[in-house]
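Researcher: Here's my situation. A collaborator sent me these components and asked whether they could plausibly form a single complex. I don't have experimental data yet, so a predicted model of the whole assembly would be a useful starting point for our discussion.
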Amino acid sequence: MILRLISANVILGLAPIALVIASWQGLVSFGFAPAALLPPPGHVFGRLLQQLVTWTFQLEIAATLIRLFAGFAIAVVLGVSIGIAAAASPAINAAVRPIVRVLAPLPKVALYPALLLLLGFGHGSKVTLVAADALFPILLSTYYGASTVEQKLIWSAMAAGTPRYEILFKVVLPAAMPSILTGCRIGLVISCIVVFLAEMITSTDGLGHALVTAARTFQAVDMFVPLITISLLGLILNALLGAVRSYLLRGFPEA
Amino acid sequence: MKVVPSRSSEWVRPVTPQKPASAIIEIDGVSQVFQTSAHKDHVALSDISLTIDEGAFVSILGPSGCGKSTLLYIVGGFVRPTSGVAKIKGAAIIAPGPDRGPVFQEFALFPWKTVLGNVMYGPRQQGVRAAEADAQSRSLIEMVGLKGYENFYPKELSGGMKQRVALARTLAYHPEVLLMDEPFGALDAHTRTRLQNDLLNIWERDRKTVLFVTHSVDEAVFLSDKVVMMSKSPGRIRHVIDIDLPRPRRRNELLLDPRYQKYVVDIERMFDESDGAGFPA
Amino acid sequence: MMSPTTLIRRIAPALACIGLLAIWQVASLVLKNDSFPTAIEAIKAIPDILSDRESLINILASLRRMAMGFGAAVLFSIPLGLLMGRSRAVAAFFNPLLMVIYPVPKAALMPIIMLWLGVGDVTKTLVIFLGVSLPVIYHSFEGAKGVEEKMLWSGAAMGLSPLQRLVRIVLPAALPEILTGCRTGLVLALITMITSEMIARQSGAGNILFNALDMGQYDTVFAMIIVVGAMGICLDAIFERIRARLVRWSEPQFDMPLSFS
């Protein structure tokens, strides 16, 4: 019964995706859109598979992934540590709060030209931009999670003889984990998006650059391929993070 | 602000902080004032003095909002009193420590640890070797009736089972005093009586000192050697009543015992009579 | 009467701005890099940008597109999100599609949409619309899903039709969550706007940034960054005021801005 319900939902969910592809095909087949502007879906996916096995395209993917992971990793380390520190210490909180208030709504991509000037056109500026964009959701959800840890969990650990500084690692961090991972999930998608955009704005390699190159020569098919690739990467990474999440949060309700 | 005991009878005696040789916890003139808003203070506890003997099962009974939990938190060292001092074995309480083990109404189990992991936490924190802590914890889990659930996560257990784990987790680091904060308050009536019976069985084996906060008159009389009645706004001790009922206590015998019934009825009447700060219906 | 602590809390963001600018000033003095002007030099360049007719028109045109894209996205996304939150079937229908679209960088669609619709306002507004929609849909969905079932039962008992229940019960009950989504969407609208202009390089605030970069007018680059940053902070602050007013009845959620969430 439940199985049938799930499969009904799956069919219902796949319907709009199939519909989009079908109408895409329809637009091309019935001549509403010239193939030069909107290549048929079969053509695009064929091209994608063909590209995925070429060495040059794999290098583009690698360049994008390196930047993505480096930026995301920096954001996670900084975001989690600042978030926990702000929740644990009123002094740090007083300093961090107004700075976050100012920097969080600031469109980080506007800093990109400055980063280019300071860090050059290589990996550094892109990694920094990714880190700056992914940092705040992670920091804020860590802070939120850490500052709403149930008081009595902390008391229970203290009564069992846990020193204050260990409370941070043994209680606050694991208790805030659901919230931290939610922040990481958002940060990861942002990282995917930002790394691609940064490569589009100015780069010599990476998936974003591949799109821009194709756009300059009006190669519609080649414009779709990097876009689909980055979305697939996003979905795969999201699924991996989901797996990590359900492992780490196996004890938590509604994980 | 003084504690003025209103009446006395053969088993109601005035609160006079006396110091028997075997006192383990002494609460001396403790007051707690919370700042509720900018210029308003709420007096949660007013000049509380109380002595608890080693090995005694003492209940603190009172309406909600009378500060009984706060008093327990002060003994736990989780909350510092505004004035006065609480002592354990003559030493002022300034922080939580493994000599005083809390059991909360909300269970407060670590959701990221299994039943075994939760119970082992205290011993491991005390530096007990892993293998030894494991063995001790398993036998404790068995004692609270959860054998077979060692590798379950708290979310997979019912409320009553969670509270059993919480009790085992606290007993695992051998506190000298158990601080129980309405531990059965979140449980249904049936589970509640079962846990009361089991708690008594466990307690009657080694007679640890227990400070037990509750708002249930039956529960207090059934479990305790001594019942401390509090009234609210500000929280004060009204009476301290010795419960002179034989142990080991069996629920089915006790409920029929006229002495038990008299304690319950008298305590309820005293709450009704006391200064309008009535007992919750 | 304001107590000293509330006063400090009020002006703390301003202090943070001054502090950040001071760090910038010191850093640029220490680095002595030609392409890294001091904060004061950058601030001095701001009046030049704002008094230049062409760049002012550019910036205002950007803001107009942003407002249109944001407005259209909100009008489209809130009803969709609420419907998804109240109907399992609608949610099952749209969720996978939205999940696939979620990691697509919306501003990256710029070149493709440009191919179809040209470089005009429609393209840029459409990209902003796409960027804003997802978080607003998501938060409206979550908000509507969290509405207490019994509140709807009471509504049905009072004789409200399903549509009336959606408008008069679900919408207000989900409002705090919806507005959180709108706040995220607003910041995203600005980001998408700047990014799409950086990619299209034809007009707008993002274009001014890169034109100045290409021409080596570094103080203009940094001045423009301040302008864009100020826009972000002001928009967020104004929206936060409106939000706080609309949902006064709801518990204070969280006093740090949760961008993107």
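Model: Some features of this prediction you could bring to your collaborator: The mean pLDDT of chain B is 86. Chain B has two domains: 22-94+177-275, 100-174.
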